[in-house]
Amino acid sequence: MLAIVCPGQGSQTPGFLSPWLELPSAVEHLGSLGEVVGLDLVAHGTTSTEETIKDTAVAQPLIVAAGLVAARTLFDVELSKLPVVLAGHSVGEITASALAGVLSEADAMKFVGVRAREMAKAAAVTPTGMSAVVGGDPDEVLKAIDASGASPANVNGGGQVVAAGTLEQLANLAENPPAKARVIPLKVAGAFHTRHMAPAVAALEELRPSLGVTDPAVPLLSNFDGREVVSGPAAIESLVAQVSRPVRWDQCMETMKSLGVTGLIELAPAGTLTGLAKRALPGVKAVAVKTPADLSAALELFAADAEQNPSTEDETV
Which residue is catalytic, options 97, 193, 222, 244? Predict the structure, then answer.
């Protein structure tokens, strides 16, 4: 079995979509997704500055759209016909939910558009941010975050926890780091996955009745607890609630391990989740699909999986 994973905010970099837009189909696809949210995602993925794409209202739709474009380029059959499990980190869970068939691409973009705008508004109320805590004893890291007044917003596994809170709280954490750990400020403008995002949750609850929702056609993991969500309503509940509750990517990786995942493919803008997998999932081959040039390595994973599972060898990708 393979895991298809979708990254969260902070994975975007200036110009990261330029190689994809050499494909005419990708230009058209990205343009149509941008129309749903009222953003020029072609420009944001190619020429916009780092400061521009750091803006939550831009970054989140851009990341979801990038994953959808990469997935369509990679797969030429329905994912339900392949031995895969899907998961997404933070906003990436929207991408994963669309790929699982829970939401149409249009509704996924509608959802992320509201999520992004409302989270940006919530972040503007109080100056807040996030910092990665890398290394250290896990229990000591959590105690240090709690002592600073911040919250553990992302427990990522692989020796990384992301703290979120006010800028004063994060400064306190940086001044009093856990033993043998580094505190690294992240390029996000808000304390995501904490109580500071409660107004965005309310806005998404209002949006929910307008969405067309179906049950996942592919195993889909919730990044709240790493468990599979088996119904469409449960998947949407996870998407809404995760805005103000911690992401437990470590538990998603534990579930992948228990399922016997042998390979992991991270969709664009890729790199972060493959890095975590290399530390937390030893023996699992991880491929970051950053550009179309990486597609061949991803396809090799499917070929290797088909050799190990002969019942899937007649499937094509």
Answer: 193
**Does residue 228 sit in the same domain as residue 148?**
no
Of 185, 217, 235, the one marking the end of a domain is: 185
Same-domain status, 200 and 290: yes
Q: 11, 90, 97, 151: which one is catalytic?
A: 90
Residue 210 to residue 264: CA distance in whole angstroms? 33
89 annotated active-site? no
Do 263 and 304 contact (CB within 8 A), yes or no?
yes
Longest dimension (CA), the chain: 57
Q: Is the pTM of this model over 0.85?
A: yes
Segment 130-140 mean pLDDT: 95
Report the C-alpha gap between 183 and 213 in whole angstroms: 40
- For the chain, give the number of residues: 317
Chain segment 204-218, per-residue pLDDT in tens = 999 999 999 999 999
According to DSSP, the β-strands at 160-166 and 151-157 are antiparallel
Q: What is the pLDDT of residues 53-79, one digit of tens each?
A: 999 999 999 999 999 999 999 886 677
Q: Please, where are the H alpha helices in 100-219? A: 105-125, 138-148, 167-175, 198-207
148 catalytic, yes or no? no
Q: Give percent of the chain with pLDDT exceeding 90.
A: 87
Local confidence band at 314 (pLDDT 50, 70, 90 cut-offs): very low
Residue 60: its H or E element? helix 56-74
In a domain, 317, yes or no: no
The CATH number given to whatever domain includes residue 180 is 3.30.70.250
pLDDT for the residue numbered 259: 96
